[in-house]
Structures are given as C-alpha cells and as structure tokens.
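Task: sequence design from structure.
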C-alpha cells in the first residue's frame, strides 16, 4: 500500500504534519514499486468555486519523500502545478542519487562550476558550518554512504572503515573561486558533498515564491515533513501546525501558531535501523565529529523561521549540538538570525525560545517546559 504524507485537519483546524518523514528507515511501509507509482502519478482535489477560497491540492514524490502542496485562490491549480515543476527541477539539480544531477557530477569530478541555486545552497551551508562550529557539514556524505543511509543497505561500519571516511569530512576545506561571473567549487580528493540537509528547506522557499507569482496569498506545503505556510488561512486566522511526538508516531508533543513561516523538525525517530546483533538503534543524523548517530541529549528539534533554508540547516545542527550547546546557540543567534526553536530532550523536557513561546500550543500539559530568553 502506498504510504502518503497527508495534512489532516484536527482539533479545530490544526494542520498536523508528520515531520522529518523520510522513507528510508526500517519503520517505513513504502516499497520501491510504490515510490515509482507515486513518481508517475499524483492525487488532486479541487473545488469548483472561482473565488479566493478555491482550493487545489496535489501530491508528488521527489527528493526521496512524498510532498503535498495546497493553495487557495483563483490560480490555485496553476500555482500548485508550477510549484511541483519547481520541486522536480531542483530534485534533478540537487539529488545525489541521480548521476546526471549537478551535485552528483561535482562529487564525481571533484568540483565544477556552480549554478545559481547550487551556489546559493553551498554558500549557506558553509555559513551554517562556521556558525555551528562544524555541527552542520555537507561533506558528511561518505560517512552516510558507509552506514547505508543513502541506499537502505544498513550496516554498522568497522572502526577502521569509519575512521577512513571520517577523515574526509571537513567542509572547511571546500574552496570556492570566482571567474568571469561564475563560481566554481573544488573538493579535496575523496570528499563528496550532500545538500540534502538544506535542500528541502530551500525548495519550500522557492515553491512559496512561485505561489506568490501566481497571486496566491494563502498556501501550505509539506515537503517530507518540512512544513511551510504562506500568509494566513483563508478566514484570516493563523495556521496551526502540529509537531510530532518523537516517542509516539501517532501523537504530537505540541503545535505552533504561524504566519509566513517554515516549521522544520529533525529527529532520529523516522529514519533509522536497529542492529540485529546488538539491538542498538542508529539514526541518520550523524555527528560529524564522531561519525556515529548524534546522541547529545536532544530527541527532537523544531525550527520556526521565515528563512526555510536556515530552518532546515539549523534543525539538524542543533540536534547534533545537543541540549546545552543548542540552548547557548539559540540565546546568541535567535534574534539576530531570525529563527525560533522548540526542542525536546531525552527526559521529555521542552525548551522553547521566547519569540515563539506564546505561539506554542501545549497539547500535553504534563510536559515540563522551559522558556529560553534570547538576546
């Protein structure tokens, strides 16, 4: 049966999205044939009234996950179809799994001239790398391959193999050069990059720009759990977006009221495998310093920001940093960089930055919540 990522209206129009929902872990019910089916066809829902409340929804499989786009307005169908075309364009450009993609060619050749989109993403990724002291590192790709998170052939690597791949990880060694108005990238020998940690965030931002170009003022999209809302709902009220409980795939740790924001969550509960010999669970968020799944105290990090690229990169980065360092990072950067965070630690305690604290919907009153006061 096809696994579909849906946006359901619950509890008085709460948009509940299964966040961080890649289909690679051992708890996925999606088969290769089902994914091919989803790539070839989409499901649509429209209303016939030609007014500002006209709704159009379409679904597509791209970037290794299911994506749902909903727009409201007279040009809703055209906007959604153009948004899907943009998703597919960026997937063809950025996917490491497509040999003809720009990123795959860069990895194969050790560098190359960057297109506008890829240049933007590489530069943003390097900025986040510097800002987080290496917690976000696009050169982690060889280690991800070794663990099997890129192919589904999961295995715990041997220490010597892991050390060899980990030696290739250091985004600080990536060099960029400009000539005749073009930017080129050069990778050290053996290094490979993967922009997947920010690609969906960037993509949702691009889709929203496409929506706006069609006159859409109200829309919501779910790119594999990366939620992004445009404007408010058609009745003028804010969107209410649910955040999945990392300990309960059918539950929510809370929600948030938002307007014109991306809401992006990282956690180790969707994409993982369990070693059959030891029973140890390994998830896909790899700590670049150790080469192993990040285990620094946090089990869920949600970033809320108008900058969807930043939100995507920081959700991973703060998860890797862990509780203490993530809180310190938020105190220092939230106000200046324009983001807020909702984080849960392994003891079930929530940490919510002051910019979004009053917008948080507490769906579990037993949760211990601490407000992070930022500068």
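Answer:
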């Amino acid at each position: 049966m096809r696994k579909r990522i849906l946006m359901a209206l619950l509890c008085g129009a709460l948009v509940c999205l299964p966040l961080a929902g890649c289909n690679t872990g051992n708890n996925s019910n999606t088969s290769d044939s089902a994914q091919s089916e989803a790539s070839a066809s989409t499901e649509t829902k429209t209303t016939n009234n030609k007014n500002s409340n006209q709704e159009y929804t379409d679904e597509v499989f791209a970037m290794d996950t299911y994506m749902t786009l909903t727009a409201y307005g007279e040009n809703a169908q055209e906007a959604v179809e153009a948004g899907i075309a943009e998703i597919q364009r960026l997937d063809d450009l950025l996917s490491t799994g497509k040999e003809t993609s720009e990123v795959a060619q860069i990895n194969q050749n050790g560098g190359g001239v960057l297109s506008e989109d890829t240049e933007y993403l590489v530069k943003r990724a390097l900025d986040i790398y510097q800002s987080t002291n290496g917690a976000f590192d696009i050169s982690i790709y060889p280690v991800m391959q070794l663990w099997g998170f890129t192919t589904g052939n999961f295995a715990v690597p041997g220490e010597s193999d892991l050390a060899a791949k980990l030696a290739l990880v250091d985004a600080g060694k990536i060099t960029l050069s400009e000539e005749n108005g073009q930017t080129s990238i050069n990778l050290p020998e053996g290094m490979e990059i993967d922009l997947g940690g920010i690609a969906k965030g960037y993509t949702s931002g691009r889709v929203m720009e496409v929506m706006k170009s069609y006159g859409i003022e109200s829309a919501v999209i779910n790119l594999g759990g990366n939620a992004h809302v445009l404007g408010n709902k058609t009745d003028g009220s804010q969107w209410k977006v649910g955040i999945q409980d990392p300990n309960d795939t059918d539950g929510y740790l809370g929600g948030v009221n938002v307007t014109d924001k991306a809401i992006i969550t990282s956690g180790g509960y969707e994409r993982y495998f369990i070693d059959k010999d030891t029973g140890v669970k390994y998830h896909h968020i790899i700590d670049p310093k150790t080469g192993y799944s990040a285990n620094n105290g946090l089990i869920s990090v949600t970033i809320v920001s108008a900058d969807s690229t930043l939100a995507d990169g920081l959700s991973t980065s703060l998860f890797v940093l862990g509780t203490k360092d993530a809180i310190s990072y938020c105190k220092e950067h939230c106000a200046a960089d324009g983001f807020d965070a909702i984080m849960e630690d392994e003891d079930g305690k929530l940490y919510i930055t002051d910019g979004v604290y009053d917008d948080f919907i507490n769906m579990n009153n037993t949760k211990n919540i601490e407000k992070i006061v930022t500068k």
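The chain has two domains: 8-94+197-283+295-325+357-364, 102-196.
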